[in-house]
Write a structure and sequence with these properties.
This protein is an alpha/beta fold and 398 residues long. Helices cover 58% and strands 10% of the residues. β4, α2 and β5 form a beta-alpha-beta unit.
Length: 398
């Protein structure tokens, strides 16, 4: 394809419809219309493009552009790529910055599609965006599904503990692990102290003995039973809270099962990718999958500095006159999922890698607080990730 592109097609993507603006290379609007995510509307787009091409000349090239608006852009993007059209995905930060250059402060879907068409015109030559490694895209979506399940499970656990504190105060003093197998089995069966003491001790002990595989002693079981007899309760709430406790336990078990199944799928995809990222301290299969999925193809980044900026771990620089601050807070402009994974990895790495631990401790000694030092370490860890992925080599302690 040559670089004399005459038709620039800007697409503003939304959930139910897409606004199309087609411009010529001199900036004139040739056509505006809307399409939906249907085969008939896609054919309508192609028919309109073909008519405009025939008017402009057989050698006319076309180029599509759209915002990378999460999940909504992918059906149309996939269809255009399948039909061999060049497509450029713009970061919303880029389109927002371009929109601010306009004098009038307006934002509508037709205006946004025209802005995207202009961004294509001013980028010579336009460069298509490729999402070639679908395994990495699958990893990203799997990790995000896993994260949503983890958050839901955490909310259930918080409510579970709250209910338990209401109907069985002091339970954590006799049952060390509230979410352990023995505790869950006991609460799943009886839920509240009044139900526990309504049964003979031997029956309660038999359940505890079976679930704990005789690891919990009879004395401990007697202590739990005695605590249930003597604790202050609210009988008026027992029946209500008992239902919720059982429901929450079922939900927690469901989410934990889903998380386990998702992590198994993530492990299979990580084996398929066969990345050296897991040789870096602090990065296992789960965090490795999160980082790889959010980064996508490493070839998108020409330097580690750009990858750090993509993650939003670069410092905000402020300059006015002779004053220039290079050590401001991080920009947080990138993927929050990527930053979260890097924070967790950095926190583990500083405890398991001497060099990374020394780097973290040096920041603390220089007056940085824990979070600030961890941000710096996460950025350093991401530079290591860049080197490992770019060179396809294992990380080794220097």
């Amino acid at each position: 394809m040559n670089h004399n592109i005459l038709l620039y097609i800007g697409i503003d993507v939304s959930k139910d419809k897409h606004d199309i603006c087609i411009k010529s290379n001199d900036g004139n609007v040739l056509k505006r219309f809307q399409i939906k995510n249907t085969d008939s509307d896609l054919n309508k787009l192609y028919t309109t493009v073909d008519k405009l091409k025939s008017k402009a000349g057989e050698n006319t090239d076309v180029f599509f552009g759209m915002e990378a608006t999460g999940i909504y852009c992918f059906p149309l993007y996939s269809a255009l790529k399948r039909d061999r059209y060049p497509v450029k995905l713009f970061n919303p930060i880029q389109t927002n910055a371009y929109r601010k250059m306009e004098i009038r402060k307006t934002k509508t879907d037709p205006i946004d599609s025209a802005i995207i068409a202009d961004m294509l015109r001013y980028q010579e030559p336009p460069v298509a965006t490729a999402i070639d490694n679908l395994v990495l895209y699958q990893l990203r979506e799997l990790c995000r599904v896993r994260q949503r399940n983890v958050e839901k499970c955490t909310k259930c656990k918080i409510q579970f503990v709250r209910d338990l504190d209401m109907v069985w105060p002091g339970y954590k003093s006799v049952m060390k692990s509230v979410h352990g197998k023995t505790s869950i089995a006991l609460l799943k069966q009886y839920s509240v102290p009044s139900n526990v003491i309504a049964e003979p001790f031997e029956e309660i002990y038999a359940l505890i003995k079976q679930v704990s595989r005789s690891q919990m002693t009879r004395e401990r079981a007697e202590e739990i039973y005695s605590h249930a007899e003597n604790t202050l309760t609210m009988p008026e709430l027992d029946s209500v809270v008992s239902i919720e406790i059982k429901t929450l336990i079922s939900e927690i078990e469901m989410y934990q099962g889903q998380i386990k199944a998702i992590e198994k799928m993530m492990k299979q995809l990580m084996d398929q990718v066969d990345s050296k990222i897991t040789t870096i301290p602090g990065i296992g299969n789960v965090l490795g999958a999160m980082i790889l999925g959010e980064i996508g193809g490493i070839d998108k980044f020409s330097s580690a500095k750009k990858l750090v900026a993509f993650a939003g771990l670069d410092p905000v620089i402020f300059q006015t006159g002779n004053y220039k601050n290079k050590t401001g807070p991080i920009s947080k402009r990138g993927s929050p999922q990527l930053r979260s994974a890097l924070y967790m990895a950095a926190n583990v790495a500083r405890q398991n890698d001497e060099n990374l631990g020394t780097y973290y401790n040096g920041k603390i000694e220089n007056g940085k607080h824990h979070k600030s030092a961890l941000n710096a370490l996460a950025a350093k860890l991401l530079r290591i990730v860049y080197w490992v992925l770019k060179n396809d080599k294992e990380y080794k302690v220097q």
